[in-house]
């Protein structure tokens, strides 16, 4: 086990703390890949040799330091590769590292449903299940030629390898996240367009607050609507200018939603993603003499200070709508 997948239990909209926590991991290894908003992958091959401890022992040290220095607990999965570490993380609990020992990959995967494997979408899972290949153990036992006939040559080969525990992934050190996402799932399939719009408003305000917290602006906004039948529609729009302004993000989100022309759609989840992040200090801003716009921006500044002092619930969703 050389790879850790760590999820820090950060409060909502506290992504600004992630760089400091990544710095904690970098005290053990320079090979750290950020998984915003609250996670990271760390390759500990060199650290195991240097510290004379295995990955599980180092995970315990990381957990203790995160608690002692930042008051943040974490859950950790460990495995021979990134894919297995990510999957182990799903079974992990605070205070306990879920590890997949080398040589036990197939046993770990065997009983899991095919949709648990990264990269297996709804359509692929449906096709496999129609032929009785509903678990990774059955997929691993199936002939490669059969899988390739069902899902294609390349996908079938990758699926066969992953189901047998072959993890060819690598931890790729990266810088600041290039995107942020906010999901709004409904308790039950939602038909009401007004509730869809309220979910968009809440998600846009969260993205705006998180962007401002890390001093970033986004160039593109992407809307994903997931339906009751597990299908999804995704639309993107490049903004007129890079922004972290909640009102501008909300207007764009509404435009994307209206362009879908949904009629009595049973919506399960609405998600917004801010992409193409850049430093707010390097972004240009079109000056405006609109007093309403300037007032909303000043209100945002006050709301951000309130969130920083009293937590994310200090400002009610929708209170900043222009």
What features would you describe in this structure?
It is a single chain. The protein is of the alpha+beta class and 322 residues long. 43% of the residues lie in helices and 22% in strands. It is built from twelve helices and ten strands. It has a five-stranded mixed beta sheet. Strands 6, 7, 8, 9 and 10 form a five-stranded antiparallel beta sheet that branches. It is flat, with a radius of gyration of 22 Å. The termini are far apart.
Strand portion: 15-25%
What is the straight-line distance between the termini? 51 Å
Number of strands: 10
Structural class: alpha+beta
Strand order of the largest sheet: 2-3-1-4-5
Shape annotation: flat
Residue windows where pLDDT falls under 50 for at least 5 positions? none
* Structural Rg: 22 Å
- Helix and strand succession? EHEEHHEHEHHHHHEHEEHEEH
Kindly state the mean pLDDT as a whole number?
Answer: 84
- Report helical residue fraction: 40-55%
Profile the largest sheet.
Answer: 5 strands, mixed
Determine the number of helices (DSSP H or I, runs of at least 4 residues): 12
């Amino acid at each position: 086990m050389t790879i850790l997948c760590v999820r820090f239990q950060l409060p909502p909209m506290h992504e600004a703390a992630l760089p400091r926590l990544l710095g904690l991991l970098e005290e053990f290894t320079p090979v750290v890949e950020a998984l915003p908003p609250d996670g990271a992958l760390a390759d500990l091959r060199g650290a195991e040799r240097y510290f004379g401890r295995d990955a599980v022992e180092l995970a315990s040290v990381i957990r203790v330091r995160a608690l002692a220095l930042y008051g943040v607990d974490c859950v950790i999965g460990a495995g021979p590769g990134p894919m297995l570490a990510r999957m182990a993380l799903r079974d992990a609990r605070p205070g306990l590292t879920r590890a997949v020992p080398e040589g036990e990959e197939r046993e770990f995967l065997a009983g899991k449903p095919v949709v648990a494997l990264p990269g297996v979408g709804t359509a692929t899972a449906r096709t496999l299940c129609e032929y009785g290949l509903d678990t990774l153990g059955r997929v691993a036992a199936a002939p490669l030629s059969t899988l390739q006939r069902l899902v294609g040559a390349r996908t079938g080969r990758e699926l066969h390898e992953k189901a047998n525990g072959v993890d060819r992934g690598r931890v790729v050190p990266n810088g600041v996240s290039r995107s942020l996402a906010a999901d709004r799932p409904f308790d039950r399939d939602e038909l009401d367009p007004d509730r869809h719009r309220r979910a968009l408003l809440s998600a846009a305000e969260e993205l705006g607050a998180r962007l401002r917290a890390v001093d970033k602006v986004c160039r593109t906004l992407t809307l994903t609507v997931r339906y009751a039948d597990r299908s999804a529609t995704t639309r993107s729009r490049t903004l007129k200018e890079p922004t972290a302004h909640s009102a501008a993000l909300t207007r764009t989100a509404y435009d994307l939603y209206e362009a879908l022309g949904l009629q009595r759609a049973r919506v399960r989840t609405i998600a917004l993603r801010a992409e193409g992040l850049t430093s707010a200090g390097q972004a240009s801003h079109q000056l405006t003499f609109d007093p309403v716009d300037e007032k909303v921006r000043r209100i945002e500044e006050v709301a951000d200070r309130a969130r920083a002092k009293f937590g994310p619930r200090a400002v009610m969703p929708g209170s900043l709508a222009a």
